[in-house]
Amino acid sequence: MSTSHEKPHIVYVDANASSLTQFRSLGLLERLGSIGVLTVHNGTPESAADYVSVVGSAQVVIVGGTLPDEVLSSAPRLALVAYVGQGASNFINLRLAQDRGIHVANTPEYGNSAVAEHVIALLFSVARRTPQGDRHVRAGLWRPFPSGMEISGKTAGLIGYGGIGSHVAKLLGALGMKVLAWNRTPVIDEDSNVEFSSLPEIFERSDMVSLHLALNEQTHGFITGELLDRLRPGAMVINTARSELIEKFALEDRLEKGLLSAGLDVFGQEPPERNDRLLSLENVVLTPHQGYNTPQAFSAMATMVVENIENFLQGKDFHRTSL
């Protein structure tokens, strides 16, 4: 991409103290500095114009949040956007990037174990009312306290069976749950303990449904009120993927009526507004989009970002995001 006389300019456009500390501790800033001229911008630029100014004539941009269209449209030498995460399509206009001849890289499957384990954490938190029990004791109370639900012998339905979904299936199987699964494309899986079925059947048979789909035009609002109504009373919905996969008001209405319970790690607005209906419900466990957030997952993600840049500059294969 660059000549032997010129190192490419690499800009980390929205770095923060935490990410920089971890990039530095892993020696990744040094690696970037050895292959290019590295500029790090601390914090998120305040406007699209600020983004354009920070990026300037860089050939490579590292970004962990939204990259304004103005950058893709006007950066004169931009060749690669290295997204720090998996769901680049939610933060970068891939069609515009494609039209401009700009490649977009992401970091797939970096947090499969972390997110899968968080699904289990939410499952137990909802089933055994763990957060409520903690608040109960801290308030100086003891018994009576509502009973919980045992997981073993229950049926779990997985909507999406990629890297995270298949990992969740193994953990659920180890807990003694029967696992049903549905995927948008055919799956060949050696795990005979997983039964692939239709969406309606999964919702009718499951005590717990966990979502593991990418968000796109086809999956926005994919889990409808009609599907939720197929769940048996008291069933739970776990969502560590994207909030917009579920029809928002359909889920909230059924939670408010006590028909379902839920464990949610994702929200339409993050953080949610203080008057969000979900915040007042005792049958919902909420976490701050933390499923992916472990040192091991961040290390894998950050390393993959740098490897993507190295491979791109050397003309090798990298983790490319496409429409």
Automatic annotation (TrEMBL):
Keyword Transcription applies: no
Domain D-isomer specific 2-hydroxyacid dehydrogenase NAD-binding: 120-291
Residues annotated as signal peptide: none
MF GO annotations: NAD binding; oxidoreductase activity, acting on the CH-OH group of donors, NAD or NADP as acceptor
PANTHER family linked to this entry: D-ISOMER SPECIFIC 2-HYDROXYACID DEHYDROGENASE FAMILY PROTEIN (AFU_ORTHOLOGUE AFUA_6G10090)
Protein family per UniProt: Belongs to the D-isomer specific 2-hydroxyacid dehydrogenase family.
Protein name, as recorded: D-3-phosphoglycerate dehydrogenase
Native organism: Paeniglutamicibacter gangotriensis Lz1y
Name of the gene encoding the protein in the UniProt record: serA_2
